[in-house]
Specification:
By secondary structure, this protein is an alpha+beta fold. It is about 35% helix and about 20% strand.
Length: about 550
Amino acid sequence: MVTRTTAAPSPSPRPRPTPALPAQGSPSAPPLRPGARKAATMVQKNVRRAATGMLGLSGERMSKVDTAWLRMDSPHNLMMINGVWTLSPGIGWQALCERVQQRLLQYPRFHQRVVEDAAGATWVEDRHFDITAHVVREKLPHKRGHSMQRALQERVGELSMQPLDPRRALWQMHLIEDFVGDDGQPGSALIVRIHHCIADGIALISVTMSLVDGGAEPPKRQRKASREAASAEDWIADALIRPLTGLTVKALDLAGHGAAKSLQMLGDPEKAMHHGVAGTMDMARAAYQLVSDAAALALMPDDSPTRLKGQPGRAKRVAWCPPIALDDVKAIGKALNCSINDVLLSCVAGALGGYLRSQGDDTVGQEIRAMIPVNLRPMEESWKLGNHFGLVPLVLPIGVANPVERVYEIRKRMNALKGSTQPVLAFAMLAVAGLMIKPAQDALLNLFGRKTTAVMTNVPGPKEPLTLCGSRVTQCMFWVPQSGDIGLGVSILSYGGGVQFGVITDTTLCPEPQQIIDAFAPEFDQLSLLALMLPWGD
């Protein structure tokens, strides 16, 4: 997935005996001249750079978490975020290229390629960057009896398993200029593929907002000269301590007040100790929470052995449904005293359980685990790209057929996750994985794959409809990658007053994801009908 560089050893003259020099600081040690001091400093710098793979490269070192995502590609799953926009009326290829050059290329990551070495990877400038290699125009193949919507879904599935060119920046757009969706409106469709090492989903929302009409350009920042790879102490501060403190704690979507307080204390133990016995007790509780959550991650039981779990193949298929009105979801949540997330996740569990039952499976008492990303950075810093999120495991009660009973079970399990430090621990695990060679990294990350059936994301998109090159974005959908042997991905995206569901599946485990998608609306309608029968008060 990346370009490897090796430097051939250059011949060197035979070393000659060098007289021993007195140690600096001793009475007989002559002071170093400015030129000698500069040379000695340069030697030390080159030694450090050579030890970390930076010698001979001019670029920015990739973070350890991003490196873990870079190396996570496998024959069954490529670590790409895939997205689709449909636009009306259609847009032209030339106009899209101009917009990309004006806006997207303001982010350095989109005109940099990746060079991997033994110690990690480096972002370097792509001196041969060619916009035509990244913005591609194509036509959908026509199949008798298939709509263009079905052809678009099949094409997205194909592209999700086609690796990006490692000699170039790791992203690509495919523009279908003439597209007619199931709504019958002529327009265009845009397929976007971005490697996960560039950014996570929250960061890519920021990128999207700079690309559309009226979008703001990314904040300007000073270009730094080739910086040296951080020391082990710097990395620990960046990857482990900082997520536990400051604004990042406030960005923990699932963290309650207790967790935030505990994490702040761990980041500043001296301040906590000034509070006497109470501070000591709080520190002990925080430490106990961390130990408990670490044990919970390590000792997670295996999922129920459903047909959705197993050894995936090498082909994928995607599907998505028309949006559901966000106001209707809010109304149901209010009626049932649940959050919007509780309602949506209950519909997901119901659709998955209904699909399994339609295939003849008995789901009584069955549960499947989904890994849910949790944002670990302030939203105002998302334009910096990179990956700054943790993972929290949520067990979906697919065996509960009653919609009301299921939504309250989801609410109970979501509340149990509040205050958990598992997202931060998962982030630390990814950072540690980025330090390892690939076989060791795979062994570590297989912990999630063996005990997980799905990856599920819920991203808040723009509240108002967007336009791109003068055309309205009528629908947008995305799918995050699945790692290891996970063969199911579920995406929830709110956009323009609606909520959209999308599914990506491995065709060996689930040949027709549309059957899962078709169950979302009926599950929501059942919950809506039952909610309307409840007393609403004033």
